[in-house]
Design brief:
- It comes from Pyrocoelia pectoralis.
- Keywords: Membrane, Transmembrane, Transmembrane helix.
- The chain is mostly helical.
- Helices cover 71% and strands 0% of the residues.
- It contains 10 helices and no strands.
- It has helices spanning 7-26, 44-62, 66-91, 103-114, 117-134, 142-161, 175-201, 206-212, 217-240, 256-288.
């Protein structure tokens, strides 16, 4: 197809991985066999989502009794947080790519925490809590709304900029710093997203809520899954065919031609594959009724 100095590393290597391991992707179990042996490594999230989706059906059975539902779901939520903290301490993991991080530490973090549903359950269960609370609208005054936004912004900042000391070039790895961020950043993120979703849908979102409700986002919603699938193959291809060194500029953060190609392939995959299969699914389930 093409060639460049990095082609064997970023294209042929992943091609061989998919020849050997793609069958695991079809069964949504590929996240259990190691990041370095995974076909299309970015799709680990698909496997995690499927496994936690199945778990949500199990948890739903306990919600016929609210007390048991809250208790069991809450226990799993807490245990998942504890698992992330203890695993980070025990195996010296780091969820932040700090300056000079060893490649093996990145693989260990992925294999022993990041791609495991037991470690990712906290944020997923937070979504289940949000879905339960979502149907209840509480009348809030301006002070309460302002406080909600303050907490959301604070939690969002802690989730994204909390480990600021780890970005310094002189930073020395500390397992306690890494464990604290790994354990609590999903909680901070969940609280922030909870308030944004809840306030927007119940009339407390203000201008941000109006922006998030813009109908134009529906277009991207339609192609988001395909966009997620095709982006890394395009990245790998473009890296693989790069034959000369180039100077990095801020414009490279949004590579126009690369982004346009990803959007085009996302539309093609959505129209030619995803939407037809959705139609088949509707026909099957409607006929079964």
């Amino acid at each position: 197809m093409n060639w460049g100095p990095l082609w064997p590393l970023v294209v042929e290597h992943h091609s061989e991985l998919c020849k050997q391991h793609m069958w695991k992707n079809f069964f949504f179990i590929h996240n259990y066999f190691g990041f370095e042996n995974m076909c299309l490594t970015h799709t680990h999230q698909v496997g995690i989502d499927m496994q936690l989706f199945i778990l949500s059906y199990v948890l739903a059975m306990f919600w016929f009794n609210k007390k048991w539902g809250f208790f069991i779901t809450g226990v799993i939520w807490i245990l998942s947080t504890i698992l992330r903290y203890t695993a980070t301490i025990k195996y010296n993991l780091s969820h932040i790519v700090y300056f000079g991080i060893p490649m093996q530490q990145m693989f260990d973090t992925a294999n022993l925490s990041y791609i495991l549903p037991t470690h990712r359950a906290t944020i997923y269960i937070t979504g289940i809590f949000i879905a339960y609370i979502f149907k209840y609208k509480v009348n809030l005054n301006q002070m309460q709304v302002a406080f909600g936004w303050f907490v959301a912004v604070l939690c969002g900042a802690l989730a994204t900029m909390g480990p600021f000391q780890m970005i310094h070039k002189e930073y020395t790895y500390n397992s306690r710093d890494a464990a604290f961020f790994g354990a609590f950043s999903p909680i901070y993120c969940g609280v922030c997203l909870f308030w944004v979703i809840y306030s927007t849908n119940h009339g407390y979102g203000g201008w941000l809520g109006d922006l998030l409700c813009w109908k134009g986002f529906k277009i991207f919603t339609k192609i988001s899954y395909s966009f997620y699938l095709v982006q890394f193959p395009v990245f790998f291809y473009n890296v693989g065919i790069q034959k000369t060194a180039s100077q990095f500029t801020p414009l490279e953060l949004v590579h126009v031609s690369e982004t346009a190609m990803i959007l085009f392939l996302s539309v093609v995959l959505t129209v030619c594959v995803e939407m037809p299969f959705q139609s088949v699914e509707k026909i099957i389930f409607q006929s079964s009724k």
